[in-house]
Amino acid sequence: MSQQPKPSESAAVAAPIAPKRPSRLRTFLDSDIVYSWQRQPVVILATLVTLTMFAGALFAPWIAPQNPFDPRQLELIDAFTPPLTTSDFTGNFYLLGSDSQGRDVFSAILYGSRISLLVGFAAVLFALALGTALGLMAGFRGGWRDALIMRIADVQLTFPSILMALLIFGVIRGFLPRSMHAEVAIIVLIIAIGLSDWVQYARAVRGATMVEKGKEYVQAARVIGLPDHRILFQHILPNVLRPVLVIGTIGLALAIIAEATLSFLGVGMPATQPSLGTLIRVGQDYMFSGEWWILLFPGVALLLLALSVNLLGDWLRDVLNPKLR
Amino acid sequence: MLAFLIQRVLQAIFVMFVVALISFSLFHYVGDPVLNMLGQEATEADRAALRAQLGLDQPVVVQFWQFVVNAAQFEFGISYRSARPVTDLIMERLPATLELAIISAIFAVVMGIVLGIYTAIQRGSWLSKFIMTASLIGVSLPTFLIGILLIYLFAVELGWLPAFGRGQTVRLGDWWTTGLLTTSGLRSLILPAITLGLFQLTLIMRLVRAEMLEVLRTDYIKFARARGLSKRVVNLRHALKNTLIPVITIIGLQLGTIIAFAIITETVFQWPGVGALFITAVRFVDIPVMAAYLMMIALVFVVINLVVDLLYYAVDPRLRVQGGAK
């Protein structure tokens, strides 16, 4: 730890190279956030794990030894190969073993975390956009809009969000024709998890907006005659985004867990497009017969993903909270 | 106080109204119940007759009113999947869920308070540090993974406890079946109850600990110690009492959460309860069961929230004074 240069020292070293104005990269590297990041080994580890899993998910088609969605690439004869074993029949090497259909568990996890992350990110973005928009409106306009939005938020907050997501998922599914269920599962899942989680963003943004609204720069913008929407989106919005960012990071971990839970319950992603939760559900069936790797590795992957994103969120919250400095 | 109460009751009624509206529209717009109930050979006249019999030729508002009246009497029609009255299905499975929920709530509350007090009083000991760290991990693990982990450890590896089901049950009265009176029933209950209660346990424990630490710093505790009262009396009689107000609220609110999370636990342990019934209903789009569950869970949450609000006023005299002064 002591070997890390203090921000002031590195700034001094950088000064002669860029005498007038430090580059943007240099400003970023000297910021408090980076300094705090360097000093916490747990956070560094969490970042590495998160980045590795993101990269694994993103580049799954190039990293994975096989495409688990393509039946032609599956070797049924290799079913239930234990981890770190080369199959006697086909000579394929299975790093984390294979499942009942000869599907490589490692590849399935890469492709599965792809779906988990896609649903997680999309659901958080959806909740974030909806919550921020409603929060801005409630905080800026006040009156009956504020009362209505916040009442709905209060009511929704009394239900646990995973139950909310499950109920919304069930209701949307009820309204859709049965033949569409498998195709649109991912979209329904995103909407359900997103709708179950907008309240926190709305509350945070509403509070921040009400504070910002009374500040001088907003009054100045009013005085020079800017229309409401410009004040709202160009002046207030950038100033209320900080809490949203923090909630969003922790929200990503929660959304990933919510998706995994729904898929585990058998009402999320279908077995033809497995996410990590679906893989765990499938793996549970083999727990009793001794094929532990089909269950264990997807479970560990989910755990690592949720835990490290959660840690990053906690860290970000502490760093961005001026009260804790 | 009265204004607050009226506002809360109105809010509760509004929530129930919205949920009823959603359930009703599920029924109304998803497929044609007449086609569902009559076979393909039915004539147009048969259909019209059934439609009139079910009141489906009435205006939508009248139908909605009829739906609400039926729901108030726990009439939700016939399950599409098992062709039995929804009320029977739910009644059959309700005891399993309630027993599981109540036992895990007791487990969570008792263990939570005990561990909370312990970690507050013995703050520096290695055991409390261990408990706090373990609780942190417990919070970040998804419920279903905890369940699977417990099954793997205690059912598959050690073989001490059953991995699924409810064991043998005994019939009490007309419809209540209980697993609490047989050994296999009790043994089957242990793992699901721990899984379901663990999250609540950590929550209650952390809350009790925080409140306790706060109270232990106040003057009246110092004074009680100075008077030479025994540690036991100071800790349990003076300090604990004042930590319990927020704890009661949380426990109340968590009861609803326990019933909600029972869905997950029941699926992991194949527990024959209402939550598992609901999951099956969602999977197979069994609208009557879904609607009934929606109404039921909404009612449970609304009632719990109301009761907690009332309790809050009953327990904390300061709030009453404030309300009266307004």
From TrEMBL, chain B:
What is the topology of this protein in the membrane according to its UniProt annotation?
Answer: Multi-pass membrane protein
InterPro entries, alphabetically?
A: BPD_transp_1_N, MetI-like, MetI-like_sf
Q: What transmembrane ranges does the database entry give?
A: 12-30, 100-121, 133-155, 189-208, 244-263, 269-285, 292-315
Q: Which Pfam families match?
A: BPD_transp_1, BPD_transp_1_N
For the keyword Cell wall biogenesis/degradation, the answer is: no
Family annotation (Gene3D superfamilies): MetI-like
Could you list this entry's UniProt keywords, alphabetically sorted. Answer: Cell membrane, Membrane, Transmembrane, Transmembrane helix, Transport
Location(s), subcellular: Cell membrane
All residue ranges annotated as the ABC transmembrane type-1 domain in the record: 94-312
Query: Has the keyword Electron transport been applied to this entry?
Result: no
User: Family, per the entry?
Assistant: Belongs to the binding-protein-dependent transport system permease family.
Q: What is this protein called?
A: ABC transporter permease
